[in-house]
Amino acid sequence: MPAHPVDPVALTADLVRCNSVTPLEGGALVLLQDVLSAAGFDCTRVDRNGIANLYARWGTRGNGKAFGFNGHTDVVPVGDEAAWTHPPFGAEVEGDWLYGRGATDMKSGVAAFAAAAIDFVRDTPPDGAVILAITGDEEGESTDGTTALLDWMAESGERMDVCIVGEPTCPEQIGDMIKIGRRGALTAFFEVIGKQGHSAYLHKVINPMPAVALLGHRLSTHVLDEGNDHFDPSTCAITTIDTGNPAGNVIPARTKMTVNLRFNDLHTGDSLTAWLREEADKVASETGTRIEMTTKLSGESFLTPPGDLSSLVASAVQAETGRTPEMSTTGGTSDARFVKNHCPVVEFGLVGHRMHQVDERVRISDIHDLKRVYTRVLTDYFAP
Question: What is the predicted pLDDT for the residue at 362?
């Protein structure tokens, strides 16, 4: 008699009840490890610098195929808890909705794949390995999460041949989008330094404010590119300008500006950093200021060209949802930017427009659909 299928909704609810606001583990990975270990997965905690991560493998290393899943159980902060109509860690159900922080992003995705994987290896044991690489550091700095797992895998001789990242990918309905790449993300921090003085004696001061305004205008209006077949145009957005000057008759000595770039594969972090530095130097020369700049690269642009992996996932999506998914590179960054250095990777998960919101919630029927898609992906991947 086959065992009862794992209920992905119940597992989602159990995970949502874990208060795992990044970087807290909150019991989520302990719960997941218990569930996977009981199903025969070999589980290893790969914690680094206080960040909890879990690697779970069913099957042996060796020459068989290895299918991987990457996801996270950490969540963003609740925000104004009084604004929630359901407790953020209560996993309460109303109609076809399950409420709670992380219900969409992405405890439901982790639960759906874990449930699919357990049922799959139990009912039709494959010739190969099924792997889950789950981090507690995706919503934070992402320095000791998926990167730690991949570093440990390289050191331990573990591998994935292909991987799905279970981030929410669908704009409106489950099945309408697969992510086959992401734009890169670069943040630049400028400090424009002038000379402080009285606003009535402009000949004695160097005002950094016009300089930062000029630099901001040039950066934000510059057309980096027109996009290409797989990517939207790259963008540069001013996110903050800070002076902290409470006096109306004082020219400040310093002002700061931050810009954020989202860029396609026509650029690299290094090429854009060089452009930013060049523009800052021009403005400094023209205004008599000094401009210091630091940058933070969150990830390079990448693309998994349409091929076997995207076709495998698209076929499963179409079969289980009746929708033909769009192949897209839109949105922000994800941990796929790290996985792509290890193996081919695509992203597929639930509808994402309620993630990070007050009253974050997920359709219960969508969780079941996602489990079915993941099950078909595994079945078709390991088919003889």
Answer: 97
